[in-house]
Amino acid sequence: MKSAIANIAASTKNRICITIILLFHLVGLIGFIVPSLTVLFIALVPWHLLLMLGVIVYSYDTLDGRFLLLALITFLIGFTAEYIGIHTGLIFGHYRYGGTLGAKLLEVPLMIGVNWFLLIYAAGVTLQRSRLKSRLVRILAGAMLLTLLDVLIEPIAVHFDYWYWLDAGIPFKNYVCWFTLSALLLFIFEQFKFKRQSIVAPALLIAQFVFFAVLNLMY
């Protein structure tokens, strides 16, 4: 009886989380497409990322120190990589952040660390739920998946002032570094050996792909 109640509660929680993810990505898509709404929705981007963070935290099976440690490590490594990137050009290429991602520390938006965590966790759980048994294959497949997502993100990010490139166009090095950093962070994710998580994180990853794919078609 307790098990059945727990399953119902978990199923309800997952439906709530997925509904929020789909609804807010759909509303955001409309806001970015309709010119009269674009300025408002650009201002809401950091709040959207925080909402998605809240959804992912809520969806996690049993919130514990390991989950929080992964979030902290991913945030710090992602933020540090971006700091090195914009101040030296050694990682990703020569670029600067615009105002869309909100408050910055040392010229790097704090939300970029949050975004790295969301992407790594979503990709990690997605591959965790796959039939791939090899940890190395999961890491490489996840890194490739996130690099493909970045291919969709880059033109939209430039268009909506997430960031802009000082190079002529988007350098190929950007994608190499995205793949490498994603693989490193997914390797760290694998070390935590989380129990199988719900479909909420994969739903977020799918929503991201659809969101940026549609915007690429529109712009």
From TrEMBL:
The chain crosses the membrane at residues 16-34, 40-60, 67-86, 106-127, 139-160, 172-192, 199-218. The keyword Transmembrane helix applies. Keywords: Membrane, Transmembrane, Transmembrane helix. InterPro entries: CruF-like. This is Carotenoid biosynthesis protein.
